[in-house]
Design goal:
Structural class: mainly alpha
Radius of gyration: 17 Å
Order of helices and strands: HHHHHHHHH
Largest sheet: none
Helix content: 55-70%
Distance between the termini: 43 Å
CATH class: Mainly Alpha
Strand content: under 5%
CATH topology: Four Helix Bundle (Hemerythrin (Met), subunit A)
CATH architecture: Up-down Bundle
């Protein structure tokens, strides 16, 4: 009976049926960054790369969630599709952070270099078997002038 519980539960609820709140995305961003750090300490570059980028995705989705109001009619379909994407540039646009990002890039060359590293991340990196530098991405995400600290100020 207990063995059937996951199958029964998945028929009742799918992940998309369970609401995800801004606090959840913030927690997920912090968890994924920490998991990337742990993987790096174990010399697991590829997993660290994926999770560091995923931390940024979750952080941007926290910024988007901050903009939503409880009884607000959903935004236009193309924006909804962007919200559910894994494309960091699209998420940045929906979060309304692009003008702030451009100002930060113009005034902070270290942040600009970090953003250029982070923006190359895609969710497809989880299928890579070589060639990804997890340490470089992790540092661009969490280090001094990192992308995650910048997003934290806005979520």
């Amino acid at each position: 009976m207990l063995a059937d519980f996951p199958k029964i539960w998945s028929r009742i609820f799918s992940v998309s049926d369970i609401p995800i709140y801004r606090r959840d995305f913030r927690t997920l961003a912090e968890m994924r960054a920490e998991e990337a750090r742990v993987l790096l300490r174990s010399r697991r570059q590829l997993g660290a790369y994926y999770l560091a980028g995923y931390a940024v995705e979750c952080a941007l989705k926290a910024c988007i969630a901050k903009q939503r109001k409880r009884f607000e009619f959903p935004p236009k379909r193309k924006n909804v599709e962007k919200m559910y994407s894994h494309d960091l540039d699209a998420l940045l646009d929906v979060a309304g952070l692009e003008p702030q990002l451009k100002r930060e890039i113009a005034s902070n060359p270290d942040f600009a270099a970090n953003w250029n590293t982070v923006r190359d991340w895609t969710s497809e990196s989880r299928y890579e078997t070589s060639g990804l530098n997890g340490k470089e991405l992790y540092n661009a995400v969490t280090g001094p002038n990192g992308v995650l600290p910048w997003i934290r100020l806005r979520w």
